[in-house]
Amino acid sequence: MIEILAISGSLRAASTNSALVAALAANAPADCRVTIYDGLGRLPIFNPDDEGERTPSEAAGLIGAVTRADGVIVSSPEYAHGVPGGMKNALDWLVSRDAAVGKPAMPVHASPRSLYARAALSEIMRTMSFALYEEGALEIALLGKKPPEMEAILAEAENRLAMRNAVQGFADFIRTR
User: Is the pTM higher than 0.85?
Assistant: First the structure.
């Protein structure tokens, strides 16, 4: 069983990114388990003085979850042409750890307009030595949709197949590492 951790970079209750990672979890192939990380909003602001024995429990939970996962899926919105602070903060907690080094990661997108955030997120993750799987990058346009509309779009057979294929391609990538 391939264990994948999915992280939404959005804290909004009606987040398109969170809806996308939830749909990926629900449509994962039988040989994959996608677990959604839901602690982004509880992470304290990263401070290098709080590493090691002083690592806060919420940060330790994130580090442990990334370490245990075979791969990580990230879906992040774009705020002011960049990665939201909460998402960057989560990544900062992983910077000096081995959790990210060589860890397969797949960015997925809920908006065709998030080009700056995509580039920034990929640059951050490459710098941290994540092994990015971008060949099967998944984008399902949910921008501006309300929850019932998101549900309908994500339930379409074509999109369910695209999600399953993206996760399967990522799982295959993980197996080759």
Answer: yes
